[in-house]
Specification:
alpha/beta; two-stranded antiparallel sheet; 10 helices; globular; binds flavin mononucleotide; binds iron/sulfur cluster
Length: 300
């Protein structure tokens, strides 16, 4: 337990998945004897933090269109890393296609430019909050693999074992092409609508919107301003599924994932196997990587 290195975890989370990963990481780092502070990015408050007293900075974010969320990008444009400071990334998203690898590109450049050191990067599997809903058995399996990945992260950070993938030209290109939410959110929100027959005016969407983008008008109906991040908090959490998500409405996912319930599921057989095809095929490689790296670091 002799480890007094000081870590700051800086993260953004739209619908709670990155918070879930951060909470677990925080707990594990404390258990390993690190001193840990946590800062959750408020997209309405782009303040500069004093990073000087930290040995390590961990940056957590959900991948949006193969990229950093725009506000995370903006937030880090404000920050100044210390020369030689070690920085690692823990990102999460629904699928593990290699296009997601370059989501940290702008961070990597910034870290290098400021003569800090980008040491490690990890991609946690968390269910989609947009596009389609994940089966709970699959989520359970993903969370189990994520636990192993968390152990890999903690061990490598503790023992100063670098772990960074080299980016390829093709990935960098995809990253630039897909800066989807940088413009997509503010444009798409013009088409957001609430089904008045379904809405019970509970105000949950207003309370949870980190951009303060939702309000009751004088008639008591839900309305939207034009500063949306497309984080999907409102569509995921509306108890009546009353919010129509503009041009992406067919990609709307409603009802948050109950992770404490999902954690209790006992799987009787694997969900992803060597025979998995289609969308989730990418998980085969990810699981293989996690299992192999875990074995290298911890034995069986
Ligand atoms: C606007 C938007 C774009 C997204 N793009 C991707 C993507 O390119 N690849 C992916 O695997 N997941 C994508 N996702 C899914 C999220 O990365 C995933 O659900 C994440 O765990 C959400 O984290 P949060 O709850 O901390 O916001 C996207 C989600 C949103 C809202
Ligand atoms: S969360 Fe849904 S039901 Fe509640 S006020 Fe917002 S739109 Fe209406
Ligand atoms: S309006 Fe909805 S999707 Fe847009 S920032 Fe607010 S909670 Fe997120």
């Amino acid at each position: 337990m002799e480890n007094k290195r000081k870590v700051l975890l800086i993260y953004y989370s739209g619908t709670g998945n990155t918070k879930y990963v951060t909470d677990h990481l925080y707990q594990r780092l404390l258990e390993e004897g690190f001193e840990v502070d946590v800062y959750r990015i408020n997209p309405l408050k782009m303040e500069r933090l004093d990073l000087n007293s930290y040995d390590l900075i961990g940056i957590g974010y959900p991948i949006y269109g193969f990229n950093l969320p725009s506000k995370v990008h903006k937030f880090f444009n404000k920050q100044r890393f210390k020369k030689g400071q070690q920085v690692f990334v823990y990102k999460d998203s629904g699928e593990t296609w290699r296009e997601n690898d370059s989501s940290s590109l702008v961070l990597r450049k910034k870290i290098k430019h400021q003569k800090a050191v980008f040491t490690n990067e990890y991609h946690f599997m968390m269910p989609y909050n947009i596009h389609f809903r994940y089966d709970e058995n699959l989520v359970k399996e993903m969370l189990t693999m994520d636990q192993k990945l968390m152990e890999i992260l903690v061990k490598e950070i503790k023992d100063d074992i670098p772990n960074v993938k080299k980016l390829k030209f093709r990935d960098n290109l995809m990253n630039r092409l897909f800066r989807l939410t940088y413009i997509g959110g503010p444009v798409n929100v013009s088409f957001y609508k609430v089904d008045k027959k379904k809405c019970i005016k509970c105000g949950k969407c207003i309370q949870g919107c980190q951009m303060k983008n939702i309000y009751f008008n004088k008639k008591g109906n839900i309305k939207f301003h034009h500063k949306c991040l497309m984080c999907c908090y409102c569509t995921l959490n509306c108890p009546k599924d009353a919010i129509k998500m503009g041009l992406f409405n067919s990609w709307r996912v409603n009802k948050p994932y109950d992770f404490s319930k999902i954690e209790k599921i006992e799987l009787t057989e694997p969900v992803i196997t060597d025979k998995t095809t289609g969308f989730f095929k990418c998980y085969i490689k990810t699981y293989q990587y996690i299992n192999q790296r875990y074995k290298e670091l911890f034995g069986e």
